[in-house]
Design brief:
By secondary structure, the chain is an alpha+beta fold. Helices cover 60% and strands 10% of the residues. The chain has 30 helices and 19 strands.
């Protein structure tokens, strides 16, 4: 008796293990899901885009020094409309009484009161995220609850929490849209729970494992789950369709195994273009690209894992339900449309090439924004509304810090004097020009007599204090020589006297002690903000826009002024951040464009084994990218630079799948029929896949764009939705003509990767999935496409499932 040989392929063996061990996989997924639900709360979300600037940039280095050396007290520009000046004065007094507010600036100038609107410049007792600042802001809002008040501040503005709430609503609406699309495009209603459970598990696992990165950006945290749904549900649909095909002639278990063995290579190949487009983001200088790329790639990998290991078991569980809930196909046959499209094969391609040139030019003129001041969103948060309202009445605010080495007050004083000469600067503030009392500045050097007069001290007491100061600081020459001419900066002497009084070495009367304590508090606040251990900080209020060529050019003027006095210095602010972002964008733009195209071409090159076909597909999708980013120029609206980098990568990596679907079917069909007939049938066959996937991605993008109040996230959503719609249109209406006209290029640039031929001699029962060349002796039951040389004794079934009829089986002897 002959021994049976297991001739199953590796994929079939792997699929069998996955299907037969499905209960084990269910158990693992349940445990991993429970863990991920808890671990998702461990993820730290970063709301600060400047923290992703390259380390070598001036802004990043300056921010690091400022974080180490200084305290930046939180502020609020609070505007109250429809009040008299008298009412505004009383409001200012009431605000000053709130615990946690250290200062409220308000006066009769137009900087603080105009046309019935009052502006209060509030300084808090802590930094932006400190509890004392947050509570004080809440108390201020409660105090002004009866007024038409707006609070332009970062205090209490938790972008990640707000986005999380918005994304819940977006996900709910997206789920409704996706279920609606699947109801129309699926073949059985019970397929939908399988798809949703598969995606839900992948999404939860991805969110629950983000903590391994330590911290992710608010952009990645907010958009990943929606983009994962739109990008990755294709994989589940492919396996579902494969299962449906195999289920027609196999039992459920065998159908799932065979479908999975065929789907794994197909889905893996499809995911490579998406992953390669996202991988290009990881090469950005602006490190948020790496953050988004790694999080989205992980999302795709978890989607693949769920489709390959969870979904087969779900198909087994729901197999009877799927069998019972088959429904008619609601997707229309578009062969008539395909025939109309192909009639324009000599008209559309030249028009498209001309449009390509125009779109490239317009997209190169796209007006980019690098900060938040010039971009808007359809939905606006209360903080954004407040910013706009205050800006409309009192103008914007552009603050710039100059970080310089500490110690030389004379240099600092001269530099501040030079800076104040520029008409582009409203005001300057530093230790050297910060007022202490009696018109003296903190950095003014006072002699013992001058200090005694200012503080109303006995001259001898003042000399004793100066003597003690000199001894403590080892400045003996001044003490032994001429003590009368010994001058000490006021800030240093104030702090010294206060410390000595605290330690009991100096006794002051109650009033003098109170004055000293008040002065000490103000001086300490000023010192915390303006002087650190190694550096001092100058604060400039510019009357220029936050970004723009004129503003960026003025930075060079400032650098020239500062370099007269210091070699080591940093300019830090929103303007320098925008400038650094614009510089890195120039490099990142080129890098992303080249890498995404190269990565995708490499994948397509080995997929189609043709040089010409990948170029034609890239041409169409790159055209959709250029057209997409022509809109901001034509609409004269600024586009946040990050939107271009992210969306162009996703378009190139994901939307090209639509072109691949049509091209794959076209290349197969043209072996059986003329190219024009092949492309019409290819369009019709690919349409359900493209409209299912494309409508989901477009809907997800537009929902994010319309419902998110964060301009950065909303901009990405709008561009993604618009770009996907453009890609679908070009793939369905332009690519067919290009494929037919370019068929000669495709054929002439083909190459063959020789596969190894395995010679095998076996006996018994052998399962075959592939081409056989040689001699077979025995009974055969198989689908064969090829040439048989020799005698045939078999029943040959030549039936073809056509619309017009069937052929009967024939006997051959």
């Amino acid at each position: 008796m002959s021994k049976k040989t297991d001739s199953r392929t590796f994929m079939e063996k792997l699929a069998t293990v996955i299907v037969d061990k499905r209960n084990l996989f269910f158990l693992l997924y349940i445990a991993a899901t429970i863990f991920s639900i808890f671990s998702s709360g461990w993820v730290s979300v970063n709301n600060d885009l400047t923290s992703y600037l390259p380390q070598e940039t001036e802004t990043r280095r300056g921010l690091d020094i400022m974080e180490e050396e200084f305290i930046t007290y939180a502020t609020s520009r609070t505007m109250v409309n429809h009040v008299t000046y008298t009412q505004a004065e009383q409001i200012a007094k009431d605000l000053e009484k709130i615990e946690g507010i250290t200062e409220v600036k308000f006066d009769e100038t137009e900087d603080h009161y105009r046309n019935g609107a009052a502006l209060f410049d509030i300084t808090f007792d802590g930094e932006v995220d400190d509890d004392v600042s947050v509570q004080a802001e809440k108390d201020a809002e409660a105090l002004l609850a009866g007024y038409d008040a707006y609070f332009s501040t970062e205090v209490g503005n938790d972008r990640s929490a707000l986005l999380a709430e918005e994304m819940k609503m977006i996900m709910a609406i997206a789920a409704i849209i996706i279920v609606s699309v699947l109801l129309l495009t699926s073949k059985a209603y019970m397929e939908i729970p399988v798809l949703l459970l598969t995606f839900g598990a992948a999404a939860i696992l991805n969110m629950g494992t983000n903590y391994i990165f330590g911290e992710i950006s608010f952009v990645s945290d907010s958009v990943t789950v929606v983009l994962q749904l739109a990008l990755a549900i294709d994989y589940a649909i492919i396996l579902c369709h494969r299962y449906g095909e195999e289920r027609e002639h196999l039992e459920a278990r065998e159908a799932v195994i065979l479908a999975l063995s065929k789907a794994i290579p197909e889905i893996s190949a499809s995911s490579l273009t998406t992953i390669s487009g996202l991988a290009a983001l990881m090469f950005m200088q602006f490190e948020i690209g790496y953050d988004m790329g790694i999080v989205l790639i992980k999302a795709i990998l978890f989607s693949l894992l769920s489709v390959f290991t969870l979904m087969p078991g779900l198909l087994m569980i729901f197999s009877k339900g799927i069998d019972r809930t088959h429904h008619k196909n609601f997707v229309p046959n578009i062969e008539k449309i395909g025939k109309v499209v192909i009639k324009f094969e000599y008209i559309v391609p030249p028009i498209f090439l001309l449009l390509l040139v125009v779109a490239f030019h317009f997209s190169s003129l796209c007006p980019y924004a690098y900060g938040y001041t010039d971009i808007t969103s359809i939905q606006e948060s209360k903080h954004t509304i407040a910013d706009h309202k205050v800006k409309e009445v009192f103008g914007g605010q552009n603050v710039l810090a100059v970080v310089i080495p500490k110690g030389d007050y004379d240099k600092e004083r001269l530099l501040l004097a030079d800076l104040e000469k520029h008409k582009e600067i409203n005001s300057t503030l530093g230790i050297a020009n910060a007022e202490a009392m009696d018109d003296y500045m903190l950095a003014d050097a006072l002699k013992p007599r001058e200090f005694a007069e200012m503080m109303d001290l006995d001259i001898e007491v003042s000399k004793l204090l100066y003597t003690a100061y000199g001894i403590k600081n080892e400045q003996y020459g001044h003490i032994v020589g001429d003590l009368e001419s010994y001058a000490v900066p006021l800030i240093d002497m104030f702090l010294f006297v206060h410390d000595e009084a605290d330690e009991g070495y100096v006794e002051l009367d109650d009033q003098m002690q109170k004055d000293l304590d008040d002065a000490y508090e103000k001086i300490t606040d000023a010192k915390n903000q303006l002087q650190g251990e190694n550096y001092s900080r100058l604060v400039l209020d510019l009357n220029m826009p936050e970004e723009g060529q004129e503003t960026f050019a003025f930075l060079d003027v400032l650098r020239k002024d500062v370099s007269k006095y210091y070699d080591d210095f940093f300019l830090v602010g929103n303007t320098t951040s925008d400038f650094d972002l614009s510089t890195s964008f120039s490099r990142d733009n080129v890098m992303i464009s080249i890498l995404s195209i190269v990565f995708v071409i490499l994948v397509l090159l080995f997929t189609f084994q043709s040089v010409g076909l990948p170029i034609l597909l890239i041409l169409v999708i790159q055209g959709s990218v250029w057209i997409n980013f022509s809109f901001p120029y034509l609409m004269q609206s600024k586009l946040f630079f990050l939107s271009y980098l992210v969306v162009s990568s996703i378009q190139m990596g994901a939307n090209i799948d639509y072109a691949i679907v049509i091209s794959n079917r076209y290349m197969d069909l043209k072996k059986q029929m003329p190219p024009k007939e092949a492309i019409v049938k290819a369009l019709n066959q690919a349409f359900p896949t493209i409209i299912t996937s494309g409508s989901m991605l477009a809907a997800a993008g537009l929902l994010i764009g319309c419902l998110s109040s964060d301009p950065t996230v909303a901009s990405i959503g709008i561009c993604l939705g618009r770009g996907t719609i453009l890609s679908i249109f070009l793939v369905m209406c332009v690519l067919p003509e290009i494929l037919v006209l370019g068929d000669i290029i495709i054929e002439r640039t083909k190459f063959v990767m020789k596969k190894p031929e395995l010679s095998q001699q076996t006996k018994g029962e052998v399962r075959v999935n592939g081409r056989i060349k040689g001699y077979v002796s025995g009974n055969i039951d198989a689908q064969i496409q090829g040439v048989i040389q020799g005698d045939v004794h078999a029943v040959i079934d030549t039936r073809k499932q056509e619309q017009n009829g069937e052929e009967e089986p024939k006997n051959a002897q």
